[in-house]
Amino acid sequence: MARIVIIGAGMGGLAAASRLATLGHRVTVCEASGTYGGMVGRYEREGFAFDTGPGLLALPAVYRDLALKTGREPLEQLVELAPVDPESRHLFPDGSDVVLANASRGGVGRALDAAFGAGAGERWGAVVNRGRTVWEATRRPLLEEPRPAEPVADPYPVPARRGLARWLPSGRHTLADVARRELGGHPGLTALLTEYALRHSLDPAAAPAAATVLPYMEQSFGVWYVRGGLRALADAVYRRCELRGVEFRFGAAAVPVVEDGRVCGVEVGGERIAADLVLSSADPGAAPEAGPTGTPAGGRITVLLALRGARPEGTVHRTVVHAADGERELDALRRGALPERPTVQLLRPDDAALVPDADHESATLTVTVPGAVDPAGFAEHLLEHLAANGVDLRERLLWHETRHTPYVPAPSLAGGPLAPANESPTPGLYLIGGHAHPGGGLARVGMSACITAGLIGPA
Questions:
Q1: Which percentage of the chain shows pLDDT scores above 90?
Q2: Do residues 323 and 198 make contact, with C-beta atoms less than 8 angstroms apart?
Q3: 3-40+230-289+417-456 adopts what CATH topology?
Q4: What does DSSP assign to residue 182?
Q5: Which one-letter DSSP state was computed for residue 379?
Q6: Which residues of the chain are in CATH 3.50.50.60 domains?
Q7: What pTM was estimated for this model as a whole?
Q8: Which class for 404: exposed (0-12), middle (13-18), buried (19 or more C-beta within 10 A)?
Q9: What is the pLDDT of residues 414-457, one digit of tens each?
Q10: What H or E segment, with its residue span, contains residue 61?
Q11: Helix axes 442-456, 11-22, angle to 10 degrees
């Protein structure tokens, strides 16, 4: 039995603690803040409740595996999990209004044909099919196994070019190239692909074509909602840790202690806690000025909206209002400025647990922004932007709360730089969470815990 200290009680730390304790190790988690969950936070006020981080769950199989491996229970016995259907509604600047089905690529294709004309769904489907090739080639090395020693080549099958284009230099194929060459530069389809990139802190002009794996995963495996908000998932994993005997120390900012070239514990406020192994979910270095795929837009602004009046019948859970001008939005992000009329995600869950009564509604706006910005007044600007696109919530607004997260780690992708390996160069020190392999995102931090627990093994 090893004595293990985990720095950080975010989702990666909780998942690792529950797995390692189940394997028979003695685990202590040190968390600098006063609670667990990390970016999966919760804000409550006047009977309203909000997720302050991600609001939807992709690849629930990661947490299903965690539930089974640490307690032999299906995830659905720990939380109430439901598919989001329709998956999303998209409002485009030309007035197009497209509703996409959840986990139905055929349904997505039909909706795109109806909105943009015959052939649009086929073009999109062809790109997503190539994203499937990426998934099949990279699932094991980039999601299920320790980080490869060498960079992973982008396996995206670039279609053969025709005519004079055959003589142009091929070079590296980016997500922007996919939009231009394979989606024909169609503004609606390009905006749809760009939204996937921005949501994951990626710049389409720098992200490899392998990023098409993101729409493939979502449209193939679906998007899910946890009743009570995603904070309920953090609660469930925390309870599992308690059942497995994990010790928690909150308000305890810990740093690894290295002696004779090896980690021997952590220091917390002048106190040393001895350990055989230390797992850290802290950023191993300063947050880069540009994300792992070249974009400075690694931050996020979240606006929590308390609304009077019941949630209207037939309201879609997730609505995306696309940028008025996609190129201007990307140019602003690259310059480190707030976009004037950006791509906005609006979440409106139908969940009685999040409101004081049936005559109120809670909603959340999310926008990708540069890390160093002043969010003052931006919430009012976003509400005006939504109103101009037919979603006017201003008259119903009781109050709002604005949160700015300066840096959100992007996922590791084939064809681009990879996050640091889980087993660090310092003996006894392991890296977990969004800053480590396989990168950012709720599913990936759960995978980082699984990979690391596998590297350590049973007691």
A1: 90
A2: no
A3: FAD/NAD(P)-binding domain (3.50.50)
A4: I
A5: H
A6: 3-40+230-289+417-456
A7: 0.93
A8: middle
A9: 998 899 999 999 999 999 999 999 999 999 999 999 999 999 99
A10: helix 61-71
A11: 30
